[in-house]
Amino acid sequence: MKISRFRAALLAPTALLLLLSACQMTSSPPFQDRYYDAQEAIPLKAGTVQESTWQTFDVVIDYRYQATADTIEVNGAAALGRHYQDLYERLTKLDVYLFLLDDTARVLQSRKIAQALASETDTVLTFSETIALPPGANHLAFGYEGRVQASDPEPNSGSDWFYKLPLARTP
Fold first, then answer.
1. Of 15 and 42, the one with more pLDDT
2. Which of 27, 36, 50, 130 has its CA 20 to 30 A from that of 11?
3. pLDDT tens track for 23-67
4. How far apart (Å, rounded) are the C-alpha atoms in residues 90 and 67?
5. pLDDT band at 17 (very low <50, low <70, confident <90, very high)
6. Tens-digit pLDDT profile for residues 84-130
7. Residue 41 CB neighbour total at 10 angstroms
């Protein structure tokens, strides 16, 4: 009787782990097959170094990339826009993404390229990635999601969520 309880105690967690890992393997990567705003997609130009600034109200990204037929090497720096730096003291969270898109602005691959947690609003995030280009990738785009908060520890003292992500399921 003790052996069967012991086996059951070992088998139950093992079965749960197998079930959870199977669920993870079948889920699609974040943002894959979602659509980005095609007007904001940046065409990939192979062979030469491209350098520019991508900016929204929320975030400024200075970037540089070089693409070949098979890979893209991208590096740069991301920071909050002036508005958030002036009005808030704490950057609770900021995730910066790179999206590789096809000619319809469908996300073929996404990669989180920078992250900040519990930082100051003037934090500058740097990134450097080399990524294999998926078949059909001919544009790139950036995205982000984050939260800022006032320094007052009182609840509801002032915070703001912001994001720019490819959430559309159709073009």
1. 42
2. 27
3. 333 344 679 889 999 999 999 998 889 999 999 999 999 999 999
4. 36
5. very low
6. 999 899 999 999 999 999 999 999 999 999 999 999 999 999 999 99
7. 20
Radius of gyration of the chain (CA): 21
Residue 42 near residue 140 (C-beta atoms within 8 A): yes
**% helix / strand / coil in the chain, to the nearest 5?**
20, 50, 30
Q: Which two tokens stand for residue 146?
A: 């984050």
How far apart are alpha carbons 28 and 39 in whole angstroms? 25
Token pair recorded at residue 56: 């929204």
What is the amino acid identity at position 105?
A
Distance CA 82, CA 17 (A): 46
Domains of the chain and any CATH numbers = 30-164 (2.60.40)
Using CA atoms, how far apart are residues 36 and 139, in angstroms rounded to an integer? Answer: 10
H or E element at residue 71: strand 71-80
Length of the chain: 171
